[in-house]
Amino acid sequence: MIHSCPAVRCLALILVLAVAGMYMTSATAETESDTFSEDQVKAAFLLRFPGYVDWPSAAANDAPFTIAVMGDEGVAEHLRALVRSRPVKGREVRLQLIDFPGDAADAQLLFVGRESAHQLPAISAVVSNKPVLVVADVPDSLTKGAIVNFLRVDRRVQFEISLDAAEAAGLRIMPELLSVARRVMRRNSRSDAECEPLPAVPRLMEECGGSTYIVSPDLPIGTWSMSVAITAMLD
Amino acid sequence: MAQGLTFNWLMLCSVDATLAMFRATVVLLAPAAPPLVPRCSPHPILIWAREPPAPFAPAPSPRFARVSDQLVAATNQEEHVRVASNSGAPPGQRPADWCVLLVALCWSAATLAEADNLTRMSLSELANLEVTTVSKAPDRLRDASASIYVITREDIQRAGATTLPDALRLAPNLLVSQLSSSGYVFAARGLGGNTDAQNFANKLLVLIDGRSTYSPLFSGIYADANDVMLEDVDRIEVISGPGATLWGANAMNGVINVITRKASATQGGLATLHGGNFEQNVAFRYGTQIDEHTSLRFYGKGLRRDETELAEGRPAEDDWYKGQAGFRLDWQRGAHAVTLLGDAYRGVERALDAGKGTLDGSNVLARWVHDTGRNALQVQAYFDRNARAAPGGGLGFALNTYDIEVQNTISGIEGHRLVFGGGQRINDYAIRNSSALSFVPDERTLSITNIFVQDTLALGSAWSLTLGLKLEKYTFAAWQVQPNARLTWQPPDYGTVWLAASRAVRAPTPFDHDVVEILNGQIFLQGNPNFEPETVKTLELGWRGSPHQRVTASVSVYHNWYEDLRSVEPTPGTLIPLFWGNGMQGSSDGIDAWAKVQLTDRWRLTPGVGVIRKHMKFDAGASRLLGTAQAGNDPAAHASLSSSMDLSDTLSFDSHLRYVAAYPDPALPHYYELNAKLAWRPKRYIELSLSGFNLLHADHREYAGPAGENIPRSVLAGIRLVFE
After folding, report:
1. H/E run at residue B75
2. Which of A1, A19, A30 faces B372 most closely, judged by CB atoms?
3. Hey, is B365 helix, strand or coil?
4. Exposure of B654 by Cβ count < 10 A (0-12 exposed, 13-18 middle, 19+ buried)?
5. Which of residues 192 through 211 in chain B touch A, CB cutoff 8 A?
6. Which residue of chain A comes nearest to B158, CA vs CA?
7. What 3-state class would DSSP assign to B364?
8. DSSP state at residue B88
9. Which DSSP string corresponds to chain A?
């Protein structure tokens, strides 16, 4: 038997040292403190959202607050790390990784990652009219039943909200959350005539009547309270 | 076997999430060294030794001492190590070379602060935070310039697959044929072997969590030996076409990449139990979180399958059973991630008129990834041991594989995505020869060394160009150049169009090089020491896109030029012994296409088709023995239609219809077959199911020639339980 291990060992040595050396030259300037991955930030958002959402009283009790995650194990992993030390709405958090839309019905918050994008229609069928805060990371998901959808804007993680979907689910979203959203979508039931005053703030309203988007294309986050005030006025 | 175990230890301690990664220490350890225990150290420590330190402290114990000081002592013991490991038992029974890779996990209070920072931020602060690591896996797939089909865990569960080969049937760009109770053959884009010419399906690379599982002895795949806990699979990527530049050796006509979920995603308990007329199986998994950064799962599964029938109707006596167990540990902190996983299995298979043979194996793999978003470094090492023994002292082997790979991806340079790396694999084997089939010599050490570089250049907003090159050296062949060039066009709203040219090889194996077959006391066939690699040059054109909101589709057409394919040549004058030659060449053209159609919110159809035309011919001067059919007995077409239907919130019905055209030589008529599964999930915790396999015929054959048995219709009733 020709013994193989010394060769492997030598190679291992060379490779590891080569790589280590390469790292020393390529990455020494880098600091890693205070940097977070996209998945971490999404996980942090998911834990914050419930604080700005009112569930119907029937759904609020002292049972654990259930967060279900579908199709994004990266986010689930960070969530798991974060929920250890943090109750949500004063309740202990139970995290479930689910594979089937049917399993989402008992959750208070459902996160749908990109890998489960194709299941959104089935999910919205399962949770329709149930008080489940459906948060998605899927383009155009607000039209497919999601209440909140993550957006990637430059190197930032932001989100958009569908007030109609929230209303259908019986959830009330607080203005503080709306004000941070990149955009808020709602279907306007008012007639065109009632929309008249809106051209005064043209940047905030793309359309009036029918399906309406309130968009803030370039406004920095935080200046949004104004539009929320307008939304409230319309109501 | 238990005596004289020698151990290789690789300990990888990646400790501090800060700048500390830039130094590494490598320590060789000897048997007499004191127990090894890396404590939190400012840099990673890599330790490699032949034998275990006395008390085996299971991972992840933090009670390890610093070892850098022992370097000198360790190198002095080198000699002893070598002597100890040479004192083995006879071939076939020599001590198992185990490789135990242990990750010492270290943490500190500082890690808690990291998460706290994030949860303390206001919503506005979170929304304005610049993130470093942009999650890119799904994007990468959508943009990939290759014919890739992804089998998801959902697909596998819905189809009711119980073994890996059954799950692979779901890929439309792969032809899976069941030979016997335990035997399967996989082929992508043809050249699926021809048993009449002792040509195996040997042009695919199958990776399970980064571990290569094709057998280096003959380049084929033992489908019974390589299985996974299907409930823990994240996805299976099936790539048709050459993938050698990035994926490595043997990726000539395709790559099958099985990826299991992280341990953090498989928390809690799960048990499945199935019973039916042809198969009974049981599986369990339990996952737990050790601390904020560390998760662990372990699993076990057992399977028993009945015998099939020979073509003439007699029992084939090929029933078998197998048990398998394994674990996966994941540790992640900041940009660092360490994965440690392993499996062990043992099975018994009956052979016709011969009795019981055995198969067994074990493997362990460690991977460290440091991903800053701009730069991702991956270092991976594994050890794999597998052995088989035919009944009654017949042919058998024991094979050890040692592999180390390093890969670095730089995406921080504007307009470029640069990947480079290298690896070394050692296959160390001993064969127990039989009277009819032997390998001379009966033990060897094979080596594969590779280095590669690939860059993807952005050419404007819609175009990109990928240029890659792999150099690979095999024991039986000179350095092989395996380049690829891929041009990608992504016009807005029209999906992805790609054009690719590549070259890949199948390296000579001991079966090509060393084999000696004896018939009636005479040498009938002999390996060829001058056997050259079989090569392919491929040109592919593909499109992937979403022509309608409810439809995604992929089409690729290809042209392959094959050279130096294996042929059988006679000895001038005496005819025998025959020997292997490289006397065949030719081309193939074909199409891979599939679509996913969401007909309604609760009903999805997945049609797929593969068509191939081959034009093989012999080189001038070749003997033309056995004809060009020996290159591969491939059906001209195969097609499938999967249907996934949710009948209600708790009831689902899935079916998979497949069509395989006639095999030409040896002949086998075309066939249709159907699998179906009805599942009822009243609660998240329980699923009851009824599955049927090969429902259209009482029995049918899927493989031409004497190796293909009659595969019976089977039904399986099952229960799946989930515990928190």
Report:
1. helix B71-76
2. A30
3. strand
4. buried
5. none
6. A100
7. strand
8. -
9. ----HHHHHHHHHHHHHHHHHHHHHHHTT---TT-B-HHHHHHHHHHHGGGGEEPPGGG-SSSPEEEEEES-HHHHHHHHHHHTT--BTTB-EEEEE-SSGGGGTT-SEEEE-GGGGGGHHHHHHHHTTS--EEEE-STTGGGGT-SEEEEEETTEEEEEEEHHHHHHHT-EE-HHHHHHSSEEEEEE-S-TGGGTTGGGSGGG-S--SEEEEEE-SSPPTTTTHHHHHHHHHH-
Is the per-residue pLDDT at A32 higher than 50? Answer: no
The distance from CA B340 to its chain's CA centroid, rounded to whole angstroms, is 17
Q: Which of B130, B234, B379 sits opposite A156 (nearest CB)?
A: B130
At B628, phi and psi to the nearest 5? -75, -10
Whether B179 contacts B707, CB under 8 Å: yes
Give per-residue pLDDT as tens, B119-138.
778 888 888 877 755 443 43
Residue A229, both tokens: 């005030």
Measured CA to CA, the distance from residue B469 to residue B484 in angstroms comes to: 6
Structure tokens given for B569: 């040549």
- Chain A CB contacts of B604 under 8 Å are 118
- Specify burial of residue A43 (Cβ count, 10 A radius: 0-12, 13-18, 19+): buried
pTM to 2 decimal places = 0.78
Q: Where are the alpha helices (DSSP H) in B471-561?
A: 510-513
Whole-number Å distance between alpha carbons of B432 and B393: 8
Residue in B157, B408, B426 nearest the CB of A99: B157
Q: Does the distance separating the beta carbons of A4 and B402 come in below 8 Å?
A: yes
8-state DSSP, B632: B
For chain B positions 233-252, those within 8 Å of chain A (CB to CB) are 234
Q: Which of B112, B127, B264 sits opposite A156 (nearest CB)?
A: B127
8 Å CB contact of B261 and A6: no
- What's the CA gap between A225 and A175, in Å, rounded? 8
Question: Residue A78's closest CA among B264, B131, B370, B260?
Answer: B264
- Residue A186 pLDDT > 50: yes
Whole-complex ipTM:
0.71
Cβ pair B306, B278 in contact under 8 A: yes
Q: How far is CA B567 from CA A12, B109, B631, B690, in A?
A: 38, 65, 8, 47
pLDDT at residue A100 above 50?
A: yes
- Whether chain A has a CB inside 8 Å of the CB on B333: the answer is no
Q: Minimal CA–CA distance to B53: which of B6, B4, B105, B104?
A: B6
Residue pair B215/B249 in contact (Cβ under 8 Å)? The answer is no
